[in-house]
Amino acid sequence: MRGSCAPLERVAGGAKIYVMNMDPLNPCDAGFLAGLEALLPPDTLRPADPRYLQEPRGRWHGQAGAVALPRSVDEVATLVRACGAASVGLVPYGGGTGLVGGQIAPAGPAPLLVSLERMRAIRAVYPSENVLIAEAGVILADVQAAALAEDRLFPLSLASEGSARIGGLLATNAGGVNVLRYGNARDLVLGLEAVLPDGQIWHGLKRLRKDNTGYDLRHLLLGSEGTLGVITAASLRLFPRNRGEGAVLLVVDSPDAALDLLALAQARLSGMISAFELISGTGLAFLAQTMPQVRQPFAQLPAWMVLLDIGAPEGVDLAALTEDLLSAAMERGLVSDGLVAQNQTQRAEFWQLRESIPEANRHIGAISSHDISLPLSELPRFIDHAGPDLAKLGDFRINCFGHLGDGNLHYNVFPTTGRSRAEYENQRDAIKTCVHDLVHRMGGSVSAEHGIGRLKTADLARYSDPAKLAAMRAIKTALDPVGIMNPGAVLSRDQEMQSE
Q: Tell me: the pLDDT tens digits for 127-171?
């Protein structure tokens, strides 16, 4: 049987792990494509345009025998069945905004890349139920607009929302800035339609809040990064729109003070905090250097700053609540300076500042970027220890920022002034290991919201519990015995083959 599992002994610790024994896949070649064309409408298959074969950070370039652009779930099923019968790998493609290489196949037999961009219908909206059904190719900003047209809110929000597509966002369980209040992408999904690795269509587009009918395939596919099936549509949760919205930028002395401020804000603004973002002085300095058109909020760059975003229902005096919070924070010595957005234009300017930080980072050029999460109480200790630990390896600049409210930091390491990241290339692995080892010791995760993709397959193997890895491999083998679904992502085929 192709794709069987066999237990092997791990040398360190003696724990049993499971590896997949899979035959090599075949390339998506001319012969395979000729047979596939006969099964599909004209213009479904195209040559692999370069735009599908690169990722945002420019570290990898992929390959594909062709790009398929299906228009329906039935066509996706046809593609999956054909790939399974011919042992050809299939890489699902959303908006191409992923940062861990899940949409890029840089090595191995050329796969078929399946882009869902033509499946972009809003199939239905149920305002009274707070539900919207969208196909996988719908751009996130269009889902938000469709919800707004019904006086509702779809709260998933991130910098790439103008190009990221719902299918990819759900496949990676995207986070974004509103997780503190509304949860990750998986928390916004009631049902899914998907094509499983054997070509069966799972018609799971339910609109139910409660459904205890056995294993929850929805949560198995959400976050699986296309390795267990292709998501083609989803029933999404909507929320009432906030009638009052505000934002404040507050200067704090330290991450410890920021956490105390978060606790105070949660007590004073129960359930109304949409986002709580930590911004470092290094990030502001990078902005001043590379994007001077972005207005700096303070004359002198603070060491640490917090962006607090608030959404309130009708009838709440948001200005009074905000003033009360700021007064209490200053009385307790948590805040030394601050700005309150006086209107939506100023609120948008605050968010432009925050959302411009990743772009400034790209201009500077990070040596190693880390998407990590920690228990909230461990965040200040991690920040205190990580810098000195890295200093033992060399001289770096660190831009630590992110979603403090849900414990997710983007801890990025940069060259010292006057040097380029190319000069540090031989230190990238050591830097990443230093950061990730500390995260692991503190009970955190080395992938908070970006996923595993192909970038972090070794990290998954290094830091995951052996029982979890064994269960993941068993699930992968049971559902995808040929191993066609996004080969090399999450559970690396190369590592599995080498372990045999």
A: 999 999 999 999 999 999 999 999 999 999 998 999 999 999 999
Q: What is the DSSP string of 446-481?
A: S-SSS--TTTTHHHHHHHS-HHHHHHHHHHHHHH-T
pLDDT tens-digit series, residues 294-308: 999 999 999 999 999
Class of domain 244-441: alpha beta
Structure tokens given for 352: 């432009």
CA atoms within 13 A on the CB side of 289: 16
Domain 4-117+453-499 annotated CATH 3.30.43.10: yes
Grouping H, G, I as helix, E, B as strand and the rest as coil, residue 99 is coil
- Give yes or no on whether 4-117+453-499 and 122-240 have one common fold: no
String of DSSP letters for 293-312: TSPPSSSS--SEEEEEEEEE
Q: Which tokens sit at 386? A: 């990580």
Rounded Cα distance, 4 and 482, in Å: 9
pLDDT band at 494 (very low <50, low <70, confident <90, very high): low
**Tokens 């414990």 sit on residue:** 407
Instruction: Name the H helices within 226-304.
Output: 255-268, 281-290
Q: Residue 265, Cβ neighbours under 10 Å: how many?
A: 26
Residue extents of the structural domains in the chain: 4-117+453-499, 122-240, 244-441
Architecture of the structural domain at 122-240? 2-Layer Sandwich (3.30)
pLDDT value at position 22?
Answer: 64
Q: Is the pLDDT of residue 115 over 80?
A: yes
